[in-house]
Structures are given as C-alpha cells and as structure tokens.
Give the backbone structure.
Amino acid sequence: MQSLKTFSLYVLFAIMLSATAGCSSWVYRINIPQGNFLEQSDIDKLRVNMTREQVLFVLGKPVAEDAFNNNTWHYLYVFNLGRDNEQRKSLTLNFENEQLVSISGDYEQPSEFNTPLEQ
C-alpha cells in the first residue's frame, strides 16, 4: 500500500513538472520574419495603371489575396511577434480592370505614383 502511494506521488510530480515546463518564459524562441519584407524604395517603384504582372515583378507575390475580392492584394510583414520590439507593416494594393489604381498602408505613397509608366 505504501509503494502505491509513493508511486502515485511520483506520477503526480512528473505530471505537474511536465505541465509547467511548457509555460516557462525562459524558453528560447527564434525570431522568424513572417510575410513580405518591403522597403520604401520598393514601394517607390509603383505607378498607377501598372499591370498585375508588373507589380509582381517589383514586389513579388503577396502574402494574401482577398478571397472575396480578386482586385485587392495584401502585403504583410511581422517580426518579433509578441515581444516588446514587435514590428508590423502592411501594404494594400487595389486593382481595377487588371491595373493598379491605389495603394494604402504603412508606407508613404510614392511622389510619382500618379504618373503612369510610359506605354
């Protein structure tokens, strides 16, 4: 009977130890950038009336395309998720008739955005 109590105590201790091990804040987590890392110099290359293919060439494939609106692309970037120095950036592109019409988000609109590329 005594050995059963001792065994039960060891099992309970092992369960409690394993349950609290995953809750520790001293576990090292690798900082992995998520999404599209874009710089303002990339955004400065965008012009109104660019085709989707031209935008893909400049910025690459977006992280998310709106499933309900094929005319909206979202470029998202997250680094250091859940930390004090977390970085988040987003850029949304809107297309009409397969051409870029507007951009919005955390980047400045290029000064020459409203000047179409030469055709």
Observations:
- The first strand starts at residue 34 and ends at 35.
